Alternative oxidase
Amino acid sequence: MRMSHITMGIRPSTVAGVVMRQRNILFTVCLVSLATIWSCRVPKMCLYRGYECNPTSSTSNTIDLSQVTAPFISWPLQRVCKEATWNHPGVVFICDDNSGGIGNIRNYMLTCVRYAIEAGATGLVLPRIRTRSSEDLADLTQPHEPFSYFFDEGHFRQGLQSSCPLITIYNSTDDIPHAVSPFQAEHITPNNLGMRAGCDQRELNKHSDTFGKQFRAHLDEVVKQFSLPPTSLDHPRAFRLNWGVQWDWPVYRDGPEFVATFGGVLRFRTDILDLGAKTVEYMRQFAAASGGGKPSFAGMHLRTESDALSNWPDFGNQSTAYLERAAGMGFNAAYLATGNGTEADKLARTAAEGHGIEVITKSGLLKEHPEELKLLEGLTWDQQALVDFIVLVESDYFLGVSPSSFSMNVALKRHLKMEGIYTRPWKIGGEGDGRSRLVGSYEKYWDDWLFMYESLWP
């Protein structure tokens, strides 16, 4: 027999109030639970905003990924490694067939590591850096220097191995367990494993999604053809990627968040970062003293050294475009990065006499700071370029030249300031992104090297 609320001695208004309070409590609990789950359910959701999944973390989505000292955000790399196929243990990649300046070296290493992940390599020999001749800048075939010639080894090891724990980093080829003696690596060009048909030899790897499958098929085919034991940790096989692969991988194939963060696994070594920071400090002092008291300055990369290609914009094109833009933006001071001292002096005279802009190089800037100047002079030509890189990234506006990989690297690194991990690709040509402009020709995809913009990791 059903009894009414009145016969039970409970007023309808009282019941309604109890029910409403219970609903409010339940609603509040649900909100708190959902908020907790949403804020820390997986690293991806937290790190999409640029910080670790830790409510007490001091870092936030205000991280400026354009900074050379920005923290390495690892979840996009973790995701790529998780998606890879790791069913052929014993594959080892060697990433040392590189050459050139920091733009080429850096992109070669990152691209080689990306291929290693896609191949399911369980080993990586710590990359080495091929140096250039101090007498002939175009001679890029001098002996190798260790990874620490440019980069922070500890930072690289921590970033890669924490994100891709199945990859072991070996100090050298001598440390690969069970490697045959004498050691011999197999040379491959990833693009050759795909069905490329009649395209330009510089074509990006449009088969990047199938590279892993093609590579593993190549492994098994060689094993069968030469009656070798299956590739394994006891029977490892080492692969050295041939020169030129640095412009192979279509970087945005992995998503903008991966593009914005992957380059952070390579950080300049600490002493060079410190010297670069000091140079930035002195440059701001120089700019403030150059007129108006403003510490802002333009950064310029003059690429007219002896190894510059003949079809690149010449001194007149570069200097005119740089000075007109800097003067139009009201800069009184500019930092000039170049390895051509004669033309540096020429540009500085033109800037002062025709535009009222004081231009200075790193050597000129550090003349009054003997301790830092001594440190600079102890570096090689390419190592000194890292100091230029740091200062140019910190400049208030950057002017460079395309298709210099150095200029491109600086501009695309600076581009990350726009939206951080959400940053969309640099729009090729035109007036740049409001933070940088690269002078050059943007008409022919191959002849003007525009493919580099699609294959460069900031």
